[in-house]
Write a structure and sequence with these properties.
- The protein contains 10 helices and 14 strands.
- The protein is of the alpha/beta class and 324 residues long.
- It folds into 2 domains: 11-175, Thiolase/Chalcone synthase (Peroxisomal Thiolase, Chain A, domain 1, 3-Layer(aba) Sandwich), CATH 3.40.47.10; 185-323, Peroxisomal Thiolase, Chain A, domain 1 (3-Layer(aba) Sandwich).
- Strands 5-4-6-7-1-8-14-13-11-12 form a 10-stranded mixed β-sheet, sandwiched between helices. The protein has a two-stranded antiparallel ribbon with strand order 2-3. A two-stranded antiparallel sheet has the order 9-10.
- α3 crosses α4 (98-105) and α7 packs across α8.
- The chain is globular.
Length: 324
């Protein structure tokens, strides 16, 4: 029987957009709520303020705003999108999902519509789903929409995690074939479920009707995030035959500045190569790494190699290698 070979291919980023609510909640807000001082929070998390959605905002409205931000540079009509993947763990509606709302709002009639949730690795999982559809020949242009409304579910009086959360959305249009010259290539995607390690399903969880989003064991999350985000970076770098020192920038999940410092130390890379927004926006969940990428998109130069790396409650991890 003849061997069967599968064609390996890149995906291309056509455009990217984002939305960040205007409100900022300073650390001082939490002193009377849970007894934590500005300095205590900053030293342990790197957070000074966090973004907060307004009373009339939710993951859907933020998602629409992120898509609108991206549309001005989309090189084809949005109606040509044939796959929409929504990614979030803080849904407004689990039936009419974030992805369905995007299809209706932007009138994309021929798209398959999927919603995925894998905690803070959800965006990378969404990219991998699109990669699979492209490989099967069942789609060629995709909208990845990721939006988190953490403050809707968080309890500000919780001294363990009530002060961590921010809100934001990011929208990325990708295609199987290059649409314009100079489009960045997504050259490698890696995801991994890790529910069997450490505290697993108990380290972080969101139970909408009872407790909201909580982090009972931050230390376990910290230790495993430091380990598995490094492993994820090393995996995609090796697959792309790229020495770690040749990576231009690393964009990690914005959970805790101390995690980023630890990862930089393990990889023996200068902290300047780690892009971050956590000091201003807090932990914006699965949107965070893609959000940092979107905020810095115009600064990247030809041949820059960017690696996104994430770790999510549940647990899960992932990484993505992008070449500009």
């Amino acid at each position: 029987m003849p061997a069967i070979f599968f064609k390996l291919f890149s995906m291309f980023i056509n455009t990217i957009g984002f939305y960040i609510p205007s409100e900022r909640v300073h650390n001082e807000h939490f002193l009377d709520l849970n007894g934590l001082t500005d300095e205590w929070i900053y030293q342990r998390t790197g957070i000074r303020t966090r973004s907060k959605a307004g009373a009339d905002e939710n993951i859907n409205t933020m998602g629409v705003a992120a898509v609108n931000h991206a549309l001005s540079k989309l090189p084809y009509p949005v109606e040509e999108v044939d796959l929409i993947v929504g990614a979030s763990y803080s849904p407004l509606d689990t039936v009419a999902t974030l992805a369905h709302v995007m299809q209706r709002e932007f009138t994309i009639p021929n798209a398959k519509v999927i919603y995925v949730s894998s905690a803070c690795s959800s965006f990378i999982n969404a990219l991998e789903i699109a990669e699979g559809y492209f490989a099967m020949g069942k789609a060629s242009k995709a909208l990845i929409i990721c939006s988190e409304h953490n403050t809707y579910y968080s309890n500000e009086t919780d001294p363990k995690s009530g002060h961590l959360w921010g809100d934001a959305a990011v929208a990325m249009f990708i295609s199987k074939e290059k649409q314009t010259n100079g489009e960045p290539e997504i050259r490698e995607i890696h995801t991994r479920g890790l529910a069997h390690i450490g505290k697993g399903t108990g380290g972080v969880y969101l139970r909408p009707k009872t407790e909201g989003v909580v982090m009972p064991d931050g230390r376990d999350v910290f230790m495993n995030a430091c380990k598995y985000m490094v492993e994820a970076i090393e995996y995609v770098a090796k697959k792309q035959q790229t020495p770690i020192e040749d990576i231009s920038y690393i964009v990690a999940h914005q959970a805790n500045m101390r995690i980023l410092t630890n990862v930089a130390h393990q990889l023996q890379l200068p902290e300047e190569r780690f892009l971050s927004n956590i000091e201003e926006l807090g932990n914006t969940g699965s949107a965070s790494s893609a959000l940092v990428l979107a905020q810095n998109f115009e600064r990247f130069n030809p041949n820059d190699k960017i690696v996104l790396t994430v770790f999510g409650g549940g647990y899960s991890s992932g990484s993505c290698f992008i070449r500009f």
